[in-house]
Prior knowledge:
Elements: H1 21-37, H2 40-49, E1 73-77, E2 80-83, E3 88-91, H3 106-117, H4 129-140, E4 144-148, H5 151-166, E5 170-174, E6 187-190, E7 193-196, E8 209-212, H6 217-224, E9 229-234, H7 250-260, E10 264-268, H8 279-284, E11 290-293, E12 304-308, H9 310-314, E13 323-325, E14 328-330, H10 343-356, H11 359-382, E15 388-392, E16 395-399, H12 408-414, H13 417-428, E17 432-433, H14 449-466
Parallel strand pairs: 3-17, 5-8, 5-9, 9-10, 10-11
Antiparallel strand pairs: 1-2, 2-3, 4-12, 6-7, 11-12, 13-14, 15-16
Helix pairs in contact: 1-13, 3-10, 4-10, 6-7, 11-14
This protein binds pyridoxal-5'-phosphate.
Amino acid sequence: MSKVGDVRRSALVAGTESIDRGRVERLLAGENARFVEERPASVQRLERARRTMPRGVPMAWMDDLYEHPPVWVSRGEGARFSDCDGHEYLDFYIADMSAFCGHAPQPVVEAVAERMRLGNQFLLPSEDAIPLAEHLAQRYGMPKWQFTLSATQANTEVVRIARQATGREVVLVFDGKYHGHLDATLMVLADGHLRPEYLGLATGLEQGTRIVPFNDLDALERALAPGDVALVLAEPALTNAGFVLPERGFHESLRELTASAGTLLAIDETHTLVTAYAGLTGVWGLRPDFLTLGKSIAAGVPLGTYGMSEELAGLLAGPDEPAVVAGAAIGEIATGGTLFANALSLAAGHAALTKVLTEDAFERTAEHGLKLAQGLEAAIERRGLPWSIAHCGAHSYYFFSPKPARDAAQSRVADDPDLRALIRVFMANRGIWESGWWLGPTVSVAHKESDVDRYLSVFADCLAAVHR
Ligand SMILES: Cc1ncc(COP(=O)(O)O)c(C=O)c1O
């Protein structure tokens, strides 16, 4: 395995047929019961919280993430966090990539404390904005940057700019995507038809969205052919349906096809930025029109950002002839929010990117990530399981199939929700916080080699318990 950009494709046979289903069910029930039993304080907090919050959590989806009830966190430091029952977890989920800097990284703690002391919110630019934008421009190769509070909001603004730039409405995404909770992308393919992904969405949204399988250039070409697509919004590799890597030539063709269709291209590195210093855009030499980032770029302090070309940035100057709506001139693309680009988020982003997410840090995480991927592969081979690993830098994913999936449909077919739930709760009961099913384990800047050893040892114990 090379350190970055490598695709591990172990070609073995079969999937999970050799696993005894009854055994999985029994183990899962036992581990789930143990999890609840050993966490009385979390359970008690959940009961109390149900009186004032839907499902007893500050955001209802927090209750969907795991099979077991949520734990209530008391603190985090480095690669670990603890819950209110006193359990400590070695964190390989890293809050869905947003804690890639590690928990409470010192340079960010100091920058945020100092910024709070000096005031955090002015509705005016603050000192960190210039060096932060300069750093992003130099690092990710896009000349102009804007700041939001989340990657969702960054993608929302990118879509609007793309619509204004092209005079088109449709947004094309790849099956298995997740780019945040923006309407234009909250569609899924079901039996070949577009359907809303959630309840509460306006009807008719499917007119504005197109979805094609990842790695399917013919489908992409067909979907672009009507000439009505404003933007293709894509991760460099899918990270929300397992870890699905692009096939050779995919990104070159994606760039060529979008350019010749007059469609803009946004690369969303919100998750994949953990794989390399300048993301996969840097490693693979991608040439998007927009680049979006979020989550870990400010060590989990709310900050999203998008970079764009000079030409697209020009649209934010406002059109020459404003439209008139209800008697008022509309001279700008719909962007913004009172707290966007606040001084605190910018200070956190500047400190995180320049003092935590350094080139040295990426060298280290790539080494630890390689050790993790190789260790996972060795553990599954030792048990003779025909599974495979996809890996890139700090991030890995284990597929319960002989080869890594080439698109989200294959990834779904290969998945085994009970088995994945069992692995995660088994590991949680032994002090390892494994990722949600869609993601796979990731090392953070704070992880040490011995942390990876510990993960691998518990993972191997779990496989031994499941597969006899
Ligand atoms: C690739 C990608 N883009 C955007 C987002 C949205 O990020 P946020 O929820 O911080 O807005 C996510 C969240 O998982 C993501 O995985």
